[in-house]
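Long-time lurker, first post. I've been practising inverse folding by hand and with some scripts of my own, and I keep getting stuck on stretches where the structure tokens seem ambiguous. Below is the full token string for one chain I'm working on. Before anyone asks, I'm not after the true native sequence, just a reasonable design that respects the backbone. If someone could post their per-position residues I'd love to compare against what I wrote down in my notebook.
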């Protein structure tokens, strides 16, 4: 018997499976919280890169995107317009090939980190309700 649960065999594998639903719920909460903070940090970094890079190197892209700022994209809700701009590829109508290429390169990491932050936010929110049971 272990602290986490009972030792059980699954085929030829031996592992520890938590017996306590309390422990499982708190583990899910901790994983959701850690995933949320990591993905939110990565989303902030990718947003910072695209905002700074477009403002400095591609001002036409920055203006076309609505002049996003770092403080204006400080949370998931306020970052949505920039993510939507990238997701829809609204920048494709620009005549600046370098700016379009830059936006294309930054599109996938920015949108994926935003999506992962949203998924972990939902998981964190749901895990808060399971802890109380």
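-- Answer (accepted) --
I ran through it position by position. Result:
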């Amino acid at each position: 018997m272990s602290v986490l649960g009972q030792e059980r065999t699954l085929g030829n594998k031996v592992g520890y499976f938590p017996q306590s639903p309390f422990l499982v719920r708190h583990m899910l909460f901790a994983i959701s919280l850690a995933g949320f903070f990591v993905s939110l940090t990565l989303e902030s970094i990718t947003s910072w890169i695209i905002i700074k890079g477009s403002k400095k190197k591609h001002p036409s892209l920055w203006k076309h995107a609505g002049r996003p700022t770092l403080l204006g994209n400080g949370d998931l809700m306020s970052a949505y317009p920039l993510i939507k701009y990238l997701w829809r590829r609204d920048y494709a109508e620009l005549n600046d090939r370098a700016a379009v290429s830059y936006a294309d390169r930054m599109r996938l990491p920015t949108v994926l980190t935003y999506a992962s932050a949203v998924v972990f936010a939902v998981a964190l929110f749901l895990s808060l309700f399971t802890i109380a049971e």
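A couple of notes from the structure itself: The chain has a mean pLDDT of 85. The longest strand covers residues 5-10. Happy to go over any region you disagree with.
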